[in-house]
Design goal:
Arc Repressor Mutant, subunit A; alpha+beta; 12 helices; 3-stranded antiparallel beta sheet; Beta-Lactamase
Length: 337
């Protein structure tokens, strides 16, 4: 356990390195942070921090930089996140509230996160398995086809075309729509199959094949696809790090193209209250970067994840604050929508 002075020195090194991307020396700590001790004392504390693995010296005669362990201790000791200012909250709300549909919400959220954090922003579409059915719509189209539209409480819309073996009268379609919504509206997607099976069985023999085709189409819609959709923005932000990015920016650029990797980076958040920070080697898929993520959704239940990924020398406090704030607004927007 580090004493308060060593923690103060580590905090100063992290903050200065994040700000300047240059190794930090004892003289600059004395000048910038006014810790009330001499440069010699700072050097002694830095030597102790280096021995314990919290900082490292990249070159002989250079200052020190934080290690992954040092960043981890710094993040763990953040007692509380500074709240967003009133103007920041208004800017977030105004930007997101102008979205016209779920796709627009996702695009705006990634752009906003990238702008606020100056990192690569990643937002996962709401998971069907964590959502509730809001409404099912049936729309007869040309020929013996019915468009089946399944709307989730998160705003996610799944659409399929059902081929039916006979012409359905309008009153049959209307009655089926009523029965379907009565059976599944407000239920989790995972319960839809059991809720719909009696509808086919209770349909008169003549219309049963058509109803069975429509129900099968609904079940196909509510099955979670393996290629969960994510939206990414802010890749251009990586250019500002240049040679300061650990090892190479290439692995992160490659990961941006692989949605499976991005979902693995975001992790599985079941709650909307916690911000998860994984630093360097804690990310098996991308050990040279850090990821700040959280869940968003209705109340405390997360329906998906969002977050940012960037170099380990990111502004953790500011990034965590932005990720938490944006997730809260997105969850509220989806709930109210």
């Amino acid at each position: 356990m580090l004493d308060d002075r060593k923690l103060a020195v580590l905090r100063a090194i992290v903050e200065d390195y994040v700000s300047t991307h240059e190794p930090v020396g004892s003289k600059s700590i004395v000048e910038r942070h006014h810790l009330g001790v001499s440069a010699a004392t700072i050097r002694n504390e830095m030597a102790a921090l280096e021995d314990e693995g919290y900082i490292a010296q990249p070159h002989t005669s250079a200052g020190r930089i934080p290690t992954d362990l040092g960043y981890r201790l710094f993040v763990d000791r953040l007692n509380e996140l500074k709240p967003m200012t009133g103007s920041e909250r208004r800017a977030i709300a105004e930007f997101l509230e102008h979205a016209v549909d779920l796709d627009d919400v996702m695009l705006r959220t990634t752009r906003l996160l990238a702008q606020l954090t100056r990192q690569v922003a990643i937002v996962q579409y709401p998971s069907l398995q964590r959502s509730l059915i809001r409404h099912i719509e049936l729309v007869p189209v040309a020929g013996r086809r019915v468009m089946v539209v399944v709307i989730a409480d998160t705003g996610r819309v799944e659409q399929r075309m059902a081929e039916v073996p006979l012409d359905l009268e309008p009153e049959v379609v209307e009655g089926l729509r009523t029965r379907l919504n009565g059976a599944v509206a407000g239920k989790p997607f995972a319960e839809v199959a059991d809720a719909l099976s009696p509808i086919v069985e209770d349909t008169d023999f003549g219309n049963r094949p058509a109803v069975a085709a429509i129900v099968a189409c609904i079940l196909e819609s509510v099955v979670e696809r393996l290629d969960d959709r994510v939206v990414v923005a802010g890749a251009a932000n990586l250019a500002r790090y240049g040679s300061h990015f650990e090892t190479s920016v290439a692995p992160l650029l490659s990961a941006i193209e692989e949605h499976v990797v991005l979902l693995r980076l975001l992790g599985e958040a079941s709650s909307t209250s916690d911000v998860l920070v994984r630093i360097g080697a804690e990310n098996a898929a991308l050990p040279t970067s850090s990821v700040v993520s959280t869940g968003y959704g209705t109340g405390d239940v997360a329906v998906a994840q969002l977050g940012v990924v960037g170099p380990t020398h990111m502004d953790y406090s500011g990034t965590m604050r932005a990720v938490h704030a944006v997730a809260s607004y997105v969850g509220r927007l989806l709930t109210e929508g």
